[in-house]
Amino acid sequence: MLPHERSLVEKWKEEPFAIVGINSDDKEKLKEMVKDGTTTWRNFTNEQADGKISTKWGVTGWPTLFLIDHKGVIRHKNLRGEEMEKALEAMIQQAKADK
């Protein structure tokens, strides 16, 4: 998953696109992942599997992916691969059209 996410960040760096990670690992592990370049996007820590963020969002498995549009609306959950990229491309185009 992480190499694919890094490639998306690079591919769409000039577009209205961002990844935000909510990480359930401990803070030190997350710091190391950022330091060594494993994650290249903004991350928040949930600190445990049953933390506040995962509980509020109903996350029960990792990774759980939410695709949220430029208006803050969840459009998709748990898409992967080509299906996810097509959905993201459509969302980016819509964001650009709404500018």
UniProtKB/TrEMBL annotation:
<keyword id="KW-0676">Redox-active center</keyword>
<dbReference type="InterPro" id="IPR036249">
    <property type="entry name" value="Thioredoxin-like_sf"/>
</dbReference>
<feature type="domain" description="Alkyl hydroperoxide reductase subunit C/ Thiol specific antioxidant">
    <location>
        <begin position="6"/>
        <end position="76"/>
    </location>
</feature>
<keyword id="KW-0201">Cytochrome c-type biogenesis</keyword>
<protein>
    <recommendedName>
        <fullName>Alkyl hydroperoxide reductase subunit C/ Thiol specific antioxidant domain-containing protein</fullName>
    </recommendedName>
</protein>
<keyword id="KW-1015">Disulfide bond</keyword>
<dbReference type="InterPro" id="IPR050553">
    <property type="entry name" value="Thioredoxin_ResA/DsbE_sf"/>
</dbReference>
<dbReference type="InterPro" id="IPR000866">
    <property type="entry name" value="AhpC/TSA"/>
</dbReference>
<dbReference type="Pfam" id="PF00578">
    <property type="entry name" value="AhpC-TSA"/>
</dbReference>
